[in-house]
Design brief:
Blueprint (H helix, E strand, L loop, with lengths): L1 E3 L5 E8 L5 E8 L5 H16 L6 H8 L3 H13 L6 H16 L9 H11 L5 H20 L28 H11 L7 H11 L3 H5 L6 E2 L4 E4 L8 E4 L2 H8 L24 H10 L8 H13 L4 H8 L4 H5 L6 H14 L1 H4 L17
Antiparallel strand pairs: 1-2, 2-3, 4-5, 5-6
Helix pairs in contact: 3-4, 4-6, 8-10, 8-12
Length: 369
C-alpha cells in the first residue's frame, strides 16, 4: 500500500497478517527514496520472511522496549533498591548527581565502553579515585541488574573489563594506648554525659556508631554474653560477644525506666541524632582533632591484630562478609613486626655461628660438581 498524507508525503507499507491472524502494517520506506518497483521488490522479500515464520517487526518492537538510563533508574532500579538496601539514599544521590546527568538521556544499548572511559577521565578532574570508584561500582551494578531482569538492551555490560582506580586517599588512623587514655579522660569531662559511655563502647566492640546509638537493652543477652545487633549495614542481624570490659561498662550505665535504649539522650529518652559537637569538643581538647569516630573501629581491629588475633577472628567481630574488607585493618604495629622478625632470627640462630662472614671465605671450586 502507499500512504499519501495531506502534506504530500508518501510512504510505502506492507500490510499483512501474522500466524494468529492479527493484522500488522510494516513500513517499507519513503516514496522519495524508493520507486514503485523497488518497493514491490522489498515487499516480496518481506512476504518471504513472513511465510517462514519470521517476525519482521521484532527489531522495531524490541527498540521500543529498550528504556533510557533515566527510566531504568526511576522505574526499576530505585524501587528495587528501596526494598533491601539501607543505603539506597546514597545510591539515589550518586545516580542523581553523577550518572543521570551524563547517561540519563541514552538508551540502554547506546552506552558504550568508550563513554564510560570518557566519563571516568572527566570525573577524575574534580573527584578523588575513591569517589569515582563508587560511581563505577554503582553503574556496573545497574547494568548487571538490568541484564538479570532480562530488560531489552542489557545483553552486555559496558563496564566489563574497566578496572577500578587505585585509591591512595584512605585515611588510616589508629589510637595508641596513650591516646586512648587521653581521649577517655576528655569524654568524661564532656557536657554530654552519655559520651563517656558511648566512646568506650565503640572502642571495646568495634561496632559502628549507629549500631551503638540505636542499641536497646533487650538486644543484650547477659547470660550468654551476646549483643544482638538487629539491623546492620548489610541489613542482616549479627552477634557481638560481650567482653569483660563491655560488661563492666554496661554495669555502670545509668538506666532510665522510661527508655529501652541503652545510650539514650537523657532529655528525650530516644537515641541521639548526632553526637558530633560533643565528640569534636572532646577530641580537640586533647589534640586529637584528626581522629574520627570511625577510627575507633579501626583501632579496635588494629589492637586485635597486634595482640595476635587472626584476620578470621577480626572479620567475625567486625561483621565483614569478605576477608579483603578486614585486611584493610590488618596493619601491624612496628614493634609487632620487629618481634616477628626476631622470631625468625631465633629460629635460625644456631646456623649463624657456622656461616662465613665474608664472601672470600666461600670456596668456589665446588661449584662445578
Amino acid at each position: 500500500m502507499l500512504e499519501v498524507r495531506p502534506t504530500g508525503r508518501k510512504t510505502y507499507y506492507l500490510r499483512y497478517q501474522d500466524e494468529r491472524k492479527k493484522q500488522h502494517q510494516h513500513r517499507i520506506g519513503d516514496a522519495r527514496d524508493l520507486t514503485l518497483a523497488m518497493a514491490r521488490k522489498e515487499a516480496d522479500k518481506l512476504r518471504a520472511k513472513i511465510a517462514t515464520g519470521e517476525d519482521i517487526n521484532a527489531k522495531k518492537v524490541r527498540l521500543k522496549q529498550i528504556p533510557t538510563i533515566a527510566v531504568l533508574i526511576s522505574e526499576r532500579y530505585l524501587p528495587f533498591a528501596k526494598t533491601y538496601k539501607r543505603s539506597w539514599a546514597t545510591d539515589e544521590c550518586l545516580l542523581r548527581n553523577h550518572i543521570i546527568p551524563r547517561f540519563g538521556h541514552l538508551y540502554l544499548d547506546q552506552v558504550k565502553k568508550s563513554d564510560i572511559v570518557a566519563f571516568i577521565t572527566a570525573h577524575l578532574k574534580t573527584h578523588k579515585p575513591g569517589s569515582v570508584n563508587r560511581v563505577i561500582i554503582l553503574l556496573r551494578y545497574l547494568f548487571n541488574c538490568a541484564k538479570r531482569w532480562e530488560i531489552p538492551g542489557a545483553e552486555r555490560n559496558p563496564t566489563d573489563g574497566i578496572p577500578l582506580l587505585q585509591e591512595n586517599n584512605k585515611n588510616e588512623r589508629y589510637l595508641n594506648e596513650d591516646e586512648a587514655r587521653r581521649l577517655y579522660a576528655s569524654v568524661c569531662k564532656s557536657d554530654n554525659v552519655m559520651l563517656q559511655y558511648i566512646i568506650p563502647m565503640l572502642i571495646l566492640t568495634g561496632a559502628r556508631k549507629r549500631e551503638v546509638l540505636d542499641a536497646k537493652w533487650g538486644d543484650f543477652d547477659f547470660e550468654r554474653r551476646l549483643w544482638r545487633i538487629p539491623t546492620t549495614k548489610l541489613g542482616k542481624p549479627r552477634y557481638v560477644p560481650l567482653s569483660d570490659g563491655v560488661l563492666s561498662l554496661l554495669s555502670t550505665m545509668p538506666r532510665s525506666p522510661k527508655s529501652d535504649y541503652v545510650f539514650a539522650n537523657p532529655q528525650t529518652n530516644k537515641p541521639f541524632v548526632s553526637i558530633f559537637a560533643a565528640w569534636d569538643t572532646a577530641r580537640r581538647r586533647v589534640c586529637l582533632a584528626d581522629v574520627r569516630i570511625h577510627d575507633l573501629r579501626h583501632s579496635f581491629a588494629s589492637l586485635l591484630i597486634n595482640s595476635g588475633r587472626s584476620l578470621y577472628e577480626v572479620q567475625k567481630l567486625l561483621g565483614h562478609t569478605q576477608i579483603k574488607t578486614t585486611q584493610r585493618y590488618a596493619h601491624l604495629a612496628p614493634e609487632t613486626l620487629l618481634d616477628a622478625s626476631n622470631a625468625a632470627t631465633r629460629a635460625v640462630g644456631s646456623i649463624l655461628g657456622v656461616m662465613p662472614n665474608r664472601v672470600v671465605d666461600v670456596p668456589l671450586v665446588a661449584a662445578q660438581r
